[in-house]
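Backbones bend. We report:
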Amino acid sequence: MDTGNLPGITAPLLSWFEKNARVLPWREHPSPYYVWVSEIMLQQTRVEAVKPFFARFTEALPDVAALAACPEERLLKLWEGLGYYNRVRNMQKAARLVMREHAGVLPDKFEELLALPGIGSYTAGAIASIAYGQAVPAVDGNVLRVISRICGSEEDISKQSVRARYERELQAVIPPDRPGEYNQALMELGAMICVPNGAPDCECCPVRDLCRARRTGRQTKLPVRAEKKARRIEKRTVLVIRDDRRAAVRRRPEKGLLAGLYELPNYDGYLTQDEALAEAKSCGFRPIRILPLAPAKHIFSHIEWHMIGYLVLVEETAGEMRPELSGREAPLFVETARTEREYPIPAAFAAYVKYLDIRLGMKNEDRSARSADGSGLGNDRI
């Protein structure tokens, strides 16, 4: 990869960023904690979707100490709607380590940040450069794309060796007096101008005259990235079991997909109405009526759930906990308002949770979405 044109992008890039940087809550107050929270939230999630979640999370947990002390179910409820729940679990592990070993203050050295759970080279670079002014690069999916196009690189950006090379090349040119702005400017350029999945807006790009991809007409062909493996399809049936006030939820296992979260009762394969009624009865409920619901789909990193659903109206039942039957985990039968308030339910069930007259996380329009790039290579903050 020929990076001889990289030194020339610094001045026009920073000048453009000064005039065009978006106003974002974590930029207004770039404390180490705010930068950390925002960067973890922005992984695989759009900037506009993150804003309300960031406000809610930092209001409830304003610092490292509050994050470290937060009960897990409340923590997961605050994260509800963002997905990828291991992100916030790792944040809490890191917060507790910071409380024990760093007196509650996020370390200011890249290597010490990198040693914390859930913090990789990108996030460590972002915190170190933006919050502490360290001259270290922060290479996310946007930056990989931008640098690939500027340098006209045909290398596969999904390879860790290529990411490491980009980090080394940027380390050599990052301005020591403005490292945080430089890193954010590269990210912003990738989010606003040098966009994925389509033609970049080259005429508005501040470094267009230095871009080899533009010069050779390869803007839409770069970056090169290996094709992902096809996701595994899983068929599932979701039951919305409720009476006038309460609904059935159950806790998922502590390990595996969506570990420790709450869910609507669901089963492998597509059940008939009679089979769905039998499942509801096996949990101790007395069904009155069953209605088929519209099919839905939810995409995880490597799996797709293709779901059908049934609304099962049942007679009122005394008590919140159903007896444990057939060796399976007993569902809870709780007031729907309490479900919305206390029980973290993943967005995988969003299409069916609406039949409980509650919402997940934030309003529907604020729910997180995977980045348009979908690269899984860090924060494509669009």
Remarks:
- The chain has two domains: 6-215, 232-366.
